[in-house]
Specification:
Length: about 450
């Protein structure tokens, strides 16, 4: 990845976007597959894997637990020698960074081990992200977990003695990752688990987890009721054949699906599955772009096209089930006609940063009229400034989403008007995002037509 400056000017498109974008592998799927591979009994290979800060943290933590993990970035491949839930390292200090999947999945994995002492910590921002629902559920199953800082948050020390199984209640309303973590280790519990949900969850990520568990050899997870799940115990994970293909990242796709709405043109995303056909609920963002006026196409992968001069409509949409993409719509809302209302996003206040407050702040700095509620934003377009540097709060999704707005030739002179502060934060999930965006710019302006 090319090193990026502290503040990056976004060069607007003066020609319609064109070309195909090869997306990185899904972060959510890669980190789940790493854990499931480690829980299996054999060596497995993950193809199309994402290599980013979050996935390297997960792979590094598994290595720290004594599991053989071999990375091959040139081939987008990771090989894992599963240990069947036995952790070879009897003690380890593990770094979760700012990765919620890493912190939550590791906590469940270490708690389910038969023995060992494990300490898990992360960045200051990760120490503020909720863990209590998972910690309390694991404790009720016999896990010895001590919060060495604030109760319910990292850092934690785990004295592993296995999980006894049976009925357990979990409050995963603040993050479905906590329920996913519990589900994946449930087969290691002595009697399996019956899980009662104490609050609502974001179903797409839980369904992704359940589907992947089945792909890795577990019986189907049984939904006994909308708020109760049963997972059988005593069956090992086994992937057959031992190669698992990671889907392209549907969240990363949202930026390039939105690009034609900002600048006109047509973008194709090879391999990206239509909504409802793959593991990722975030693929539904394609429907949102269609509501706003883009034409959605499926030619071996989802794509979007838009002709400047045709209407770009404001959208009212509940993003609870695919909230990682809401910033993409918020960022281009200044280009749409009429008010855009985004709801179902209150839980994102406790992600890498308070995404609702941050979005409202940056959009107001962009001159937009914004009404902020606990669970929603309403954005009414107003003229954009001639020059601005936007803050990213160290959050990759701010950087990528607002960069798409900067691609619009808002001043009409082809000159950069929007700068992205700390563009390197994209390393969390899409390290070469700005290289890919620059490649699309070059293809759109210089390739033969």
């Amino acid at each position: 990845m090319t090193s990026l400056p502290e503040s990056l000017p976004i060069v607007p498109f003066t020609q319609p976007a064109r070309g195909a974008v090869v997306l990185p592998g899904s972060k959510s799927i890669t980190n789940r597959a790493l854990l499931l591979g480690a829980l299996g009994a054999d060596r497995v290979e993950l193809t199309g894997a994402l290599f980013s800060e979050d996935t390297r943290l997960m792979a590094g933590a598994l290595s720290g637990l004594g599991i053989d993990v071999r990375l091959d970035p040139a081939r987008s491949s990771i090989a894992i020698a599963g240990t069947g839930g036995v952790l070879p390292a009897g003690t380890a200090d593990l770094d979760a960074g700012l990765a919620g999947t890493v912190a939550r999945f590791l906590t469940a994995l270490c708690a389910a081990a038969s023995h060992g002492v494990y300490r898990i910590d992360g960045t200051e921002a990760m120490r503020r992200r909720p863990m209590e629902g998972l910690i309390q559920a694991l404790r009720s199953l016999g896990a010895g977990i001590r919060c060495t800082g604030a109760e319910g948050f990292l850092p934690v020390e785990i004295r592993a003695c296995g999980l006894r199984g049976g009925l357990v209640s979990i409050d995963a309303g603040e993050s479905s990752q906590m329920l996913s973590a519990l589900l994946m280790v449930a087969p290691l519990a002595r009697d399996g688990l019956e899980i009662a949900l104490a609050d609502g969850i974001r179903e797409p990520f839980v369904k992704m987890t359940a589907a992947m568990m089945e792909q890795f050899g577990q019986p189907p997870v049984r939904w006994l009721a909308p708020d109760r799940i049963a997972v059988a115990g005593g069956r090992r994970y086994r992937l057959s054949p031992p190669v698992y293909a990671i889907e392209p990242d549907a969240t990363a796709a949202s930026y390039f699906l939105a690009l034609p709405l900002a600048v006109g043109g047509r973008i194709r995303l090879p391999g990206l599955r239509p909504p409802g056909t793959g593991l990722q609920g975030d693929a539904r963002f394609a429907e949102v772009i269609g509501q706003a006026g883009a034409r959605i196409e499926d030619t071996g992968g989802i794509g979007a096209s838009f002709s400047l001069g045709t209407p770009r409509r404001g959208v009212a949409r509940d993003f609870r089930e695919f909230s990682d993409t809401f910033l993409t719509l918020a960022a281009i809302a200044p280009l749409l006609e009429g008010t855009t209302r985004i709801s179902g996003i209150g839980h994102t206040r406790r992600q890498e940063t308070d995404r609702v407050a941050g979005a409202a702040r940056e959009l107001r700095r962009l001159g937009q009229e914004v009404v902020e509620e606990e669970d929603a934003l309403a954005i009414t377009p107003r003229p954009l400034p001639r020059e601005i540097e936007i803050e990213t709060y160290g959050d990759h999704r701010f950087a990528m989403a607002l960069a798409i707005l900067g691609c619009a030739d808002a001043r009409g002179d082809g000159q950069p008007w929007l700068r992205v502060r700390d563009p390197g934060c994209c390393a969390k999930t899409f390290p070469n995002f700005f290289e890919v965006l620059a490649r699309v710019w070059n293809d759109s302006h210089f390739s033969s037509r």
